[in-house]
Amino acid sequence: MRLRIAHYPPYTSKWNPIEHRLFSQVERAWSGVMLDCPQTALRTVEQTRTQTGLSVTARILDATYEIGRTCSDTFRDVKDRFIRHDCVNGQWNYLVDPNGFAC
Q1: Residue 58 contacts by C-beta under 8 Å, 6 or more apart in sequence?
Q2: Measuring CA to CA, how many Å separate 78 from each of 4, 7, 91, 94?
Q3: Residue 10 has pLDDT above 90, yes or no
Q4: What is the mean pLDDT of the chain?
Q5: What predicted TM-score, i.e. pTM, was given to this entire model?
Q6: Burial class for 45, CB neighbours closer than 10 Å (0-12, 13-18, 19+)
Q7: Second label for 101, Cα 20 to 30 Å away, from 16, 70, 75, 86?
Q8: Where are the beta strands (DSSP E) in 1-103?
Q9: In sequence order, which residues have a C-beta less than 8 Å from that of residue 50 and are 6 or more positions away?
Q10: Helix count (H) and strand count (E) of the chain?
């Protein structure tokens, strides 16, 4: 079965109602707080609650992630067998076929 994947471009609203209701409360909790370290931000955001009972679970990811890494040619070859990017906006829209595409 082929799957068509379509992502929203960066910085585009996706309008998730839960995020919308909860993040406004997070912003309110952070208002006037000096976010001087990640622990302060974490502690403040974990205390956030909405009137309907939504709460935040958060953690600090302290791993170091390399930037600028490139994938190997072998990975690209395998990826290209199973993923076809659209001609228009291919970075956001593509087709995946687990059986592979004919070359």
Answers
A1: 42, 45, 46
A2: 18, 22, 17, 15
A3: no
A4: 87
A5: 0.51
A6: buried
A7: 70
A8: 3-6, 83-85, 93-96
A9: 21, 22, 25
A10: 3, 3
Token digits of residue 72: 């190997």
pLDDT at 13: 67
Residue % of the chain over a pLDDT of 90: 38
Mean pLDDT along residues 20-35: 89
The residue ranges of every structural domain in the chain are 3-60+71-96
Q: In what order do the strands lie in the sheet with 83-85?
A: 3-6, 93-96, 83-85
Residue labelled with tokens 């302290």: 62
